[in-house]
User: Fold this.
Amino acid sequence: MTVDSVTGATMTAEAGATRPPADGPDFDRIHDALLGSWKDVRLAARARTLDPALHRRDDLLVADHRARVTAQLQVLLDSGAVRLPFPEAFGGTGDAGGNLVAFEELVTADPSLQIKAGVQWGLFAAAILHLGTRYHHDHFLADAVELRTFGGFAMTETGHGSDVASIATTATYDPATQEFVIDTPFRAAWKDYIGNAAVDARAAVVFAQLVTKGERQGVHAFFVPIRDEAGAFLPGVGGEDDGPKSGLNGVDNGRLHFTGVRVPRANLLDRYGSVAPDGTYSSPIPSQGRRFFTMLGTLVQGRVSLAGASNTGAKIALQIALTYAEQRRQFAGAAGDEEVLLDYPRHQRRLLPRLAAVCAATFTQDELLLAFHRVFTGEHDTDESRQELENFAAAAKAEATWNALDTIQECREAAGGAGFLAENRFGQLHADLDVYATFEGDNTVLLQLVGKRLLTDYGKRLKAAGGAGAARIVAGQALGAAAASAGLTALAQRVADGGTAAGAARSLRDPATQERLLQERVEVAVAEIAPALRPGPGVSAADLAARFGEHQHALIEAARAEARLRQWRAFTRAVERETDAPTRALLALVRDVFALQVIERDLGWYLVRGLLSRSRGRAVTRLLDALVARMRPHALPLVEAFGYEQGHLRAAIASGAEAARQAEARAAR
Amino acid sequence: MTVDSVTGATMTAEAGATRPPADGPDFDRIHDALLGSWKDVRLAARARTLDPALHRRDDLLVADHRARVTAQLQVLLDSGAVRLPFPEAFGGTGDAGGNLVAFEELVTADPSLQIKAGVQWGLFAAAILHLGTRYHHDHFLADAVELRTFGGFAMTETGHGSDVASIATTATYDPATQEFVIDTPFRAAWKDYIGNAAVDARAAVVFAQLVTKGERQGVHAFFVPIRDEAGAFLPGVGGEDDGPKSGLNGVDNGRLHFTGVRVPRANLLDRYGSVAPDGTYSSPIPSQGRRFFTMLGTLVQGRVSLAGASNTGAKIALQIALTYAEQRRQFAGAAGDEEVLLDYPRHQRRLLPRLAAVCAATFTQDELLLAFHRVFTGEHDTDESRQELENFAAAAKAEATWNALDTIQECREAAGGAGFLAENRFGQLHADLDVYATFEGDNTVLLQLVGKRLLTDYGKRLKAAGGAGAARIVAGQALGAAAASAGLTALAQRVADGGTAAGAARSLRDPATQERLLQERVEVAVAEIAPALRPGPGVSAADLAARFGEHQHALIEAARAEARLRQWRAFTRAVERETDAPTRALLALVRDVFALQVIERDLGWYLVRGLLSRSRGRAVTRLLDALVARMRPHALPLVEAFGYEQGHLRAAIASGAEAARQAEARAAR
Assistant:
């Protein structure tokens, strides 16, 4: 189903004209499953990104690339799509999930465009919408949405990126003039890496410590004009260009500083906290900490969309690399003919588990989008659902962004020298998506949050079980650990496997076995860490911090395992939804490849704990090899089922040129 | 020992003015050890790369970057250094090893400069020197060395990169005119990715299938003029620009094609094969295969220098990231103060094992350079020493180039958003060094060669042992495997460890234990693979090829293990050479961190085979955590002992600016 916008072959495929053999997997069904819950929105977004005006050009200087992307925003606005998440009064339908789907797809045109659009609509305008109230919507939102005001989201400072609660910019209320006075008191307090800030921004949503009546009320957001119409900084405002970056050079990131900059009292985005004319502070959320995290909660949409965008990048890279691997030949085989790269088992091992991982991430992303949609449309917006969403997004974002970088890099190398040419896109995709691993929440910090949540949940379970119950849980774990340690788990596995390699393989393909292993990877790790972190008599805060440090690495690894467990479950639900038997069998095979690579990566962890028997452990690698070989004939149709067209790939080695060269060379022999 | 060319602090450090406390490690000694056998050449090369005229600029279009690098070659030539590897008549001293040392260091200025210099002097001129004879030295070499003739090394074709023996360009001898006629018969036969070919090259060493008297004699090299002085292609020659690349855009890579291009008979570089006026072919090496590999042998210097250059890139990245990690603070700790990034155990885990790995690669590189020097100066140039050198270079190049990419990426992420700015260099270093993993021998192909050599050596050992001896070796292995499998090895380990975690840790720090484990990783893997690949009655070539495929992944992993074993041994020899006890202790600690990360990576492999007991396996991760914590206070002095100056780092976050910002912010509180 490689489809081309020119021939309209998408339509053909959609209509099922390219039916597979009746007994084989139906790739149209897989295509639908991979497109997910917003299929039409997604396809419409992809159709838009076929417009060459939106595509990245390879040899522009930074200033020209920036100007090009700025102009592209207008094209997006003209399409109307970017208005959709906003309220009806602003041209929208409130389709929170669909909006992110459309953003994800911008990566195929130019990741800079995705991020620039994200800055303008997803951060700047969205902050006005979500953190502001009626006044701000009336006065600032339409200009932001309609690109009459370009704006920055000025949260991060040079000195504080991950720990935003500690930013040093202040907004001090002056009741005499009913204004806030914004200051960045030292160099580390300058706002930094702010998209739009170097050139385009005329205003910014500035995050600052609100001070009124001599008291700090924590971080709040303010609408602050920063430049005049001609682009000159307003009095008291200054800044610097962040200059060229490793990627995303279509986005003009910059630094901003403020010295006694005054904005009217009304410019405080006051949904979660307001200041009366006399300076009295009030908030619907009494706890400063909770208030802060509620405000930060609006950032979750950035994380959700970055996870999806990373998947998009990985899919493009895989389709380019696998198309080439199916056409490219090198070294004569036993029969004398040169072998197709993808027939080399090592090449399969390099690309196919990554294809399986991207399928897993895709099914996970759809569930994440649905969860996001339910919260942000108010359909199911509770404290608990928000916390669960934030936790899910943190795990998914870390996993998807790292996975994309790893996948794109492997694809690049698998294409050899051709993979290094700009015309084949890998390098630029990697360079652009690189920062996705650390912005909108550094992956390590996000995973630490996920890990802490795992610890909290574990503590809650113990507490809910009560004294005796908790003792039973701990004893049960101790018993399980002792049994595993004594080899009883391994013994049970040997018995279950009938002592044979085939039996071990059968067990490992059983979803129940897979789920138990993936779950144990999380739960046993948490149970190992938790006791050390329990406060007790004579345990100082410093002791606890030191112990936390000792277990930080293990906790973060447990959080990654949690992210993968979620992926496995999402994939398995997708398998279970599939009703066509051969199609379901293929999806199950790919899910198994995903599961086994995850288990193989942590093989040592399982074995030292006796959670895998040696024979079953040995079967993991063998089985993975065998399943990858079984997946190989389906690799190209599978990657094509993502549904991207030549106009999205735009890679010389995926254009069919290699097949033509091979045919010409073979004919000449 | 962060040293600055302006203050001359290098000299101070060299003179030992900054003596460490008497009981601590002596970092001047470590500095010397890391600089290796060509210390003076290396320092002189580094002094040259401080020249801003040689530095990469961040915002140049491809054409301007190319022009800048072309001009930089003249600066290098003026320094005289690039003449050193050539014979005396060409201004050289024949210092083969020192020449590569100087090349390695060019990476600090701009990897494009390293590669462009490598193309001109290391490939084009070196091919004339090594593949040509007196006539070619007299007629072509001086112009190549003195940059009067820019040239390409036209070996790779669009259709054949890794399998160069199958290139399709032909050079057909015409006795009537005593000329060779060069042809690229179809598109896949075009020369591709050829450095200098897009713009600068006026000539090329073209590799082609030599045909004379209607017979193919295999691949040979020809000196072929391709452009006139004004830069227009000569008749019959054409080409294309490879266009922008993911990195190395200072090098003008291009494609070349030839249609009936005639060159005089004398233009065959005929050291390894010549054609008489009547077309009679002769060669000092009768076997076509061996002749080809002998010619290719001259490529080994490219691999050696890429390994070293990758280490240089990784060192720069680590010094930038570790300097920042020592100054940057984020999140308040238990005491209220914000914590230094490098005090986070996870941050240590991310950076310090990589620092240990780069130390290992550095000591390995020095041994590789010495081996290269002995062969290429003729000091010890035998078939066997050449084969060993090629094998060593293949393993070291694969390991060093991948390690550099992994290290630079981790450093980039560890520096967060700041790491994404061009001013901090990580992204460009990664983009430039990316292709080092696949050019001058694709790492996967190189490792497969190393793996095949392991199999051959194993077969030879069996054969040398004779029938009964071979049976004993195999039986011994079977016994060892059975003992391991039955848990006897593990039991023996438990006994040796006294059943305690401390005992296990002690064993794992024992170099003999480390070496045995690393060696078993190679030898057991090879012994597992070898039997399946033994030809026998009823085993067809196709069967063998299929079986080879089944074991390809395992063989390549065994080859990586071999590369790491070599690194471990080189590191251990460096430890043993050190006579100052505290310095030696620190080197041993870093070596242990290297060893344990290698073992941890393959933990599952060891455990399923019973080569590690569960308790010792569990001790691996704990011990690695503990050793990394012990290494932490030495991290900065250690990375500074690589000896690079601010003029090499040229990164804003390594300039001390972060420390100044932190001090200002803390003073303001």
In short: DSSP finds 23 helices and 13 strands in chain A.
